[in-house]
Request: fold
Amino acid sequence: MAGPVKDPVDEPVRGPDGRSSRWEDHREARRATLVTAAVAAIDELGPGAGVAAIARAAGVSKPVLYRYFADKSDLHAAVGHWGATQVVDRLMPVLLGDLPLREKVYRACDEYLTLIAEHPHVFLLLVEHRAAGDPLADGKQLVAAGLARILGDTLRDLDVDASGAEPWAQGLVGLGLATGEWWLRRNTMSRAAVADHLGSFVWHALAGIAAEHGVRFDADGGVRVVPDDREGG
Reply:
C-alpha cells in the first residue's frame, strides 16, 4: 500500500514575481506523486478501486485528491498517461538498440507484456473505463507517435514507402491493447508464448510490407538485406 502523502494548505499565489509559476510547478509535481500513489493503490485493491478507496490508500482525503484532479475521469486519464509513459520507456530502448530488427520486435513484445503483468489491475481498470471518456486516449497517442516515428525511420532506411507508418502504428497500439486484455483475463498461455505469437504477427507484417517493395531480410531479420529474387525485382 502506498504510504501517507502529506498535503500542505496550498493556495495559488498570483503576481509578477513568478509565484504563480512556482505554484503550477508544485501542482504538477503533486499530481505526479498522487498518480504514483494511485497506481500503488490500484495494484493492491484491484481494477474496481473507487476514488475514495484510492484516496485512503494514498493517505489523503478525497477532497484533497480532488484539489488536483477534476473528477474520477481526470484521475484515470492521469494514470493512463503514466502507463503510456511506462510503455514508451520500456519499448524505446529496445526498438532503438543495435539488435537485429527481428529480435527487436520480439523483445519489444515481451517487454510490453512484462510491464502489464507487473500492473495488471491498472491495465484492466484503464481498459474497463474506455467507454467513460477513454482514460487511454492521450496515452495511446503518445505510444502510437513513438511507434510511427520508429516505423517510418526503419522503412525509410530500407528505401521502402513509409507513408503508412502512422496508421500502422495505430493498429499496433490496438493490437497490443486487445492482446494484453485477453491474456490478463484468460491467462491460458504463458507470457513467453504470447510474446512469441505477438512478435511473429508484428514481424511478418513488417517483413511483408518490405517484401512488397522488393526488400528481403535474412533468416534472423538482421541488418543485411537479401536481394529480391523476383525477375526484374
Q: What stands out?
A: Residues 19-45 form the longest helix (27 residues).
